[in-house]
Model the fold of this input.
Amino acid sequence: MTKQAVFSLSLLLIFLFHCTQTLAQGPDIIKILEKPGEFTVFVRLLKSTGVADQLNGELQQSNSGYTVFAPNDKAFSELRSGTINSLSDLQKVQLIQFHVLATTVSLSNFQTLSNPVPTQAGDTSAGEFPLNVSSSGKQVQLSTGVVLATLGNILHSDDSLIVYQVDKVLLPLDIFRNYVPSTDTADQAPAKSPPVAAKVNESSAVSLIRDIGMWVYIGIAVNIAAFSL
Done:
């Protein structure tokens, strides 16, 4: 075998090894969510709870894949102040796991799901962490018993992982049963119309000025007539 043939065979083996390693690695949920730049809070929670490492590890072994519902930073900003920080470490894990389904669900397949849909957070057969899905055409909504979220853009889709953007943080009923939504919008009192009395007084004043002017003209006319005699 010539040196050129050996060299070519080596390059081929290196290329095949690289392809095998790339395929074995699979998708990385953190890299997927960091790319748009608007999922910083969700990414931080995925990392701090260990769910990201768990998910990335299981993606290499799972035959059914995973579906992730990713709320953006705006969705987190709409929560009451201290909502996330007040949770225990276990509750934070459950919150993030509640955003993960242990199967890939394409947009057209949501209508085939049976409610409540099981998540990674708990066993729905025991009544834990219920998540209900409703689908009408291309619109899909997720109800937790606390919030109603709407599915948005598809951030990633392949045979092992599908990531959807959602417009609200999915707050599980088991943790947020007594949650009260934020009411930051200030109440604005409707503009008051001028009092009727003010309008009447204004009209009376105009009439009074008109009457005074008329008597002034009459007085001037009388005086001119008197001087003419």
Remarks:
- Confidence is low (pLDDT under 50) at residues 11-23, 185-210, 214-218.
- The beta strands are 66-71, 100-101, 132-136, 139-143, 148-157, 161-166.
- Residues 196-228 form the longest helix (33 residues).
